Automatic annotation (TrEMBL):
All residue ranges annotated as the Peptidase M1 membrane alanine aminopeptidase domain in the record: 236-446
Domain Peptidase M1 alanyl aminopeptidase Ig-like fold: 454-559
EC supergroup of this enzyme: hydrolase
Protein name per UniProt: Aminopeptidase N
Role noted for this protein: Aminopeptidase N is involved in the degradation of intracellular peptides generated by protein breakdown during normal growth as well as in response to nutrient starvation.
Keywords: Aminopeptidase, Hydrolase, Metal-binding, Metalloprotease, Protease, Zinc
Similarity comment text for this entry: Belongs to the peptidase M1 family.
EC assignment: 3.4.11.2
GO molecular function, one term: alanyl aminopeptidase activity
Example GO BP: proteolysis
Location of the region described as Disordered in the Swiss-Prot/TrEMBL record: 1-21
Length: 889
């Protein structure tokens, strides 16, 4: 393995080494005096020895980073410097036995904090981000989630520049101070770990609303934004109220404080953060109006507002014992937000888009060098484990429990989980145990889903005997080895299964040996061994199995469908996911055949059956527009790349472009009629944000993109007209995306007009950066390099970095993976520049390099060269070190 220039490589933390904290903290009184040079932080901790961690005196060991310790007072006595040790990351104090009171005085410089963890400045605003281990940058503290305390926080600041002072809980006092300063005191009555602490100071606009809980308590809702942005908060506020209602109706969870606050900030590493009573958001996931946000943005905002709100119960009231248990709160909360969105909009469409994300991002992670279980057992830097595996696969694991227990059983399990663990810091195992104990269902083998990494492949073969009318379905499973886990055990895999009859209707099912199937047309088969065969009886000839309905398990399915079966299911499956999946599989097979042809130097010809299936779907007017737009989307380049042993980026790109051209051209009249019909239904102003209207716009944009792909001038003409910057953002972006790869002056003109209209709006400018970076045109890398100097770009704002640099390295495979290695050199350079500023974001940006084994030898060598260049940096953070070293291992 390559060694970093580090003297010693950073050491991993292991789940098996978990030990309860030697001391507990009952209450914290924090005083934060914000100043231009220094910010002074004083913490008074009331603590005691943890009875669960032995007895007798034990030294108090606190975490701390990037701060200057000024004084320590223990039980009223100021300690001499010889009585404690300050290390780079720990403060060790004398051993204590009984209760103690500790006062820690220190100072920090938030204005220099570019890592955006702890207390930092975003523009003129002070704000915090403490998950996972940011609190230790504010004061010395046992910064671990199983230490839960009641916090009282006093903030002092200049009144004119920082009129708004916020922290968790309720504001209990405010007042004036000398020299134009003021203060506010906040008290949060709920015990919480330090990672849920938050405070904000700044000059912010506020939009206020209220919500009456089902038990009749009135809650004040406030959203704080930069002054001038108040008009863009309406959607977030409505989303919040819908989330509050839904959580009461579905889980009986009521909000528990008198005020719920959201603050939108522009410099933020992640999407948003669920701090108790004071959620802090990346402004991108709050601000929206139809002129500046797309329908996709509106839906993401709704989902993220809900996600953070739902954390109040799943995450805050019941939190994680240690960071290995992260999916306890994240997998569960993602599952809850997915279900919320499914209830608010179209369940089938939501499922399809969640599965697409899982397959596009999580499956590759699970198959690569950074693969880890939903509950990891080791990490070097916990920030690297906020992954699609912990979140999205974690949600799939919870969904499987829901499928196995049924909705009522699952709700009973949730009730028991809350009854047992409210106010505690617990483990994934505690969650599963509550689900078992509430229902009597044995989930002992199911627990493997938390500990075993890798995506299982389920193989399905079947045989029908017309004489006996039996259909034997043989299922088997295998999970590939992953780093540190060479062999795998079979896991219980729930497979929702149906048989679709030749007339297109699902058949009533009866298993061999059953007196009667009860008329149900769907069964949950649980494959819990390496292989098994189930037999259905009374099956007429020609029935086609519909398997893994609703994507009931996060697996790869290898099923023996013929192209005819797939075309049939694409038109007939009564499960929306199954229907979409059938067309995806059919298209994938056809596209891979085209890639094969191109590799062999032959022309790529699209299988006519794909075009016919598209034609049939287009003509099916029973389909909701939103669903149809999903149905008509070909699998993306990275999905196709993954389906190959070697991802031939150029051929994959060319094959997909050719397929789009043929579908666009052959069905041009259909697209054009559809586009006209849908555009006529679009009211002027485009402010109809109903699910149906969003679906119509999605479908109109899909039709437009196919018309442009056809190469006909009419398509381009329509797109140019729709791209005019006075339209609503969904339509403008739809047109720009459709035009973006073209080597035509119209494309440049449309992008330039968009830039001129929006260059002073950072969130909209990000869309422009991403378009520029995502274009398949050959000059894209040069364009991106030039844009690093654009006045609207800043390497210190993660949203800008993700739009421009990420738009190229993660959003543009055909150009990023240029055979000459120029994309890799560019990324290595950017990662190193970024690492000195923000290691967490730098580590994420490194990701596109880790799956170098998926590419041909030349690219693989260039990618590993780039990784080596990164890892040999003498000042590398442990965040980037962990990713790069695993990639090279
Ligand atoms: N806990 C946040 C969420 O998923 C994500 C987050 C993690 C935000 C770490 C900031 C830092 O809702
Ligand atoms: Zn979360």
């Amino acid at each position: 393995m390559d060694r970093a220039a580090h003297e010693t490589s950073p050491q991993p933390v292991r789940l098996q080494d978990y030990a309860p904290p030697p001391h507990l903290i009952d209450s914290v009184e924090l005083t934060v005096e914000l100043g231009d040079d220094w910010t002074k932080v004083t913490a008074i901790l009331s603590g005691r020895r943890n009875p669960a961690a032995g007895s007798g005196p034990a030294p108090i060991v606190l975490d701390g980073q990037d701060q200057q310790l000024q004084a320590v007072t223990l039980d009223g006595r100021r300690l001499a410097e010889s009585e404690y040790q300050v290390g780079a990351e720990k403060l060790t104090l004398p051993a204590v036995d009984g209760p103690f009171e500790l006062m820690i005085e220190g100072r920090i410089r938030p204005q220099d904090n570019t890592a955006l963890e702890g207390l930092y400045r975003s523009g003129g605003l002070y704000c915090t981000q403490c998950e996972a281990e940011g609190f230790r940058r504010i004061t010395y503290y046992p910064d671990r989630p199983d230490v839960m305390a009641v916090f009282t926080v006093r903030i002092e600041a200049d009144k004119e520049r920082f009129p708004v002072l916020l922290a968790n809980g309720n504001c209990v006092e405010t007042g004036e101070l000398p020299f134009g300063r003021h203060f506010a005191v906040w008290h949060d009555p709920f015990r919480k770990p330090a990672y849920l602490f938050a405070m904000v100071a700044g000059d912010l606009g506020c939009v206020e609303d209220s919500y009456v809980t089902r038990s009749g308590r009135e809650v004040t809702l406030r959203i704080y934004v930069d002054p001038g942005n108040e008009g863009r908060t309406g959607h977030a506020m409505e989303s919040l109220k819908r989330s509050m209602r839904w959580d009461e109706e579905v889980y009986g969870f009521e909000y528990d404080l008198d005020v719920f606050m959201i603050v939108a900030v522009s410099a933020f590493n992640m999407g948003a953060m669920e701090n108790k009573g004071l959620n802090i958001f990346n402004d991108k996931f709050i601000l929206a109006d139809p002129d500046t946000a797309t329908d996709g943005d509106f839906q993401r905002i709704e989902g993220i507002v809900a996600h953070e709100y739902f954390h109040n119960w799943t995450g805050n009231r019941i939190t994680c014992r240690d960071w290995f248990q992260l999916s306890l709160k994240e997998g569960l909360t993602v599952f809850r937000d997915q279900e919320f969105s499914a209830d608010m909009h179209d369940r089938g469409v939501k499922r399809v888009s969640d599965v697409r994300l899982l397959r596009t991002v999580q499956f590759p992670e699970d198959a690569g060098p950074t693969a880890h279980p939903v509950r990891p057992d080791t990490y070097i830097e916990i920030n690297n484990f906020y992954t699609v595996t912990v979140y999205e696969k974690g949600s799939e694991v919870v969904r499987m429990i829901h499928t196995l227990l049924g909705p009522d059983g699952f709700r009973k399990g949730m009730d028991l989980y809350v009854e047992r663990h409210d106010g505690q810091a617990v483990t994934c195992d505690d969650f599963v145990a509550a689900m078992e104990d509430a229902t009597g269902v044995d989930l002992s083998r199911f627990r493997l889903w938390y500990s075993q990494a890798g995506t299982p492949t389920v193989t399905a073969r079947w045989q029908h005997d017309p004489a006996t009318r039996r259909l034997d379905l043989t299922l088997s499973q295998a999970t590939p080895s992953t780093p540190g886990q060479p062999t795998k055990q079979p896991m219980p895999i729930p497979l929702r299964t149906a048989l679709i009859g030749r007339n297109g209707a699902p058949l009533p099912l009866r298993l061999d040996g059953e007196p009667d199937g009860g008329g149900a047309t769907e069964r949950v088969l649980v494959l819990d061994e390496a292989a098994t065969t189930v037999s259905f009886v009374d099956v007429p000839p020609g029935a086609v199995p519909s398997l893994l309905r609703g994507f009931s398990a996060p697996v790869k399915l290898d099923a023996a469908w013929s192209e005819e079966d797939l075309a049939f299911l694409a038109g007939a499956d009564d499960d929306p996911f199954g229907r979409w999946e059938a067309l995806q599989s059919l298209s994938t097979r056809a596209l891979l055949a085209m890639v094969g042809a191109l590799r062999a130097g032959k022309p790529a010809v699209l299988d006519q059956r794909v075009v016919e299936a598209f034609r049939a779907s287009l003509a099916d007017d029973r389909l909701e527009p939103a669903f149809l737009s999903e149905l008509l989307a070909l699998p993306g380049e990275s999905l196709l790349g993954q389906a190959l042993d070697v991802w031939h980026v150029d051929e994959v790109h060319a094959a997909r472009a050719e397929a789009r051209r043929v579908i666009g051209e052959t069905l041009f009249d259909g697209w054009s009629a559809l586009y006209e019909r849908l555009s006529a239904a679009e009211p002027a102003g485009g402010a109809d944000l109903s699910t149906a209207a969003m679906g119509r716009r999605a479908l109109a944009n899909a039709a437009l993109a196919y018309m442009v792909a056809s190469g006909r001038e009419e398509g381009i003409r329509l797109a140019v007209a729709q791209a005019r910057p006075d339209g609503t953002m969904t339509r403008v972006m739809g047109a720009l995306v459709a035009l973006n790869d073209l080597e035509r002056p119209e494309r440049d003109a449309a992008l330039a007009a968009f830039h001129d209209r929006w260059q002073n709006d950072p969130l909209v400018l990000d869309k422009w950066f991403a378009l520029k970076a995502g274009s398949a045109r050959t000059d894209t890398l040069d364009q991106v390099k030039g844009l690093l100097e654009h006045p609207g770009f800043s390497i210190r704002i993660p949203n800008r970095v993700r739009a421009l640099i990420g738009g190229f390295t993660a959003g543009n495979p055909v150009r990023f993976h240029a055979a000459d290695g120029s994309g890799y050199d560019f990324l290595a350079e950017q990662v190193l520049a970024l690492d000195a500023i923000n290691p967490q974001v730098a580590a994420r940006m490194t990701q596109p390099l880790v799956r170098w084994r998926k590419f041909d030898a030349g690219r693989g060598k260039a990618m590993t060269d780039a990784l080596r260049r990164i890892i040999h940096s003498p000042t590398l953070s442990k965040d980037v070190y962990e990713i790069a070293s695993k990639a090279l291992a």
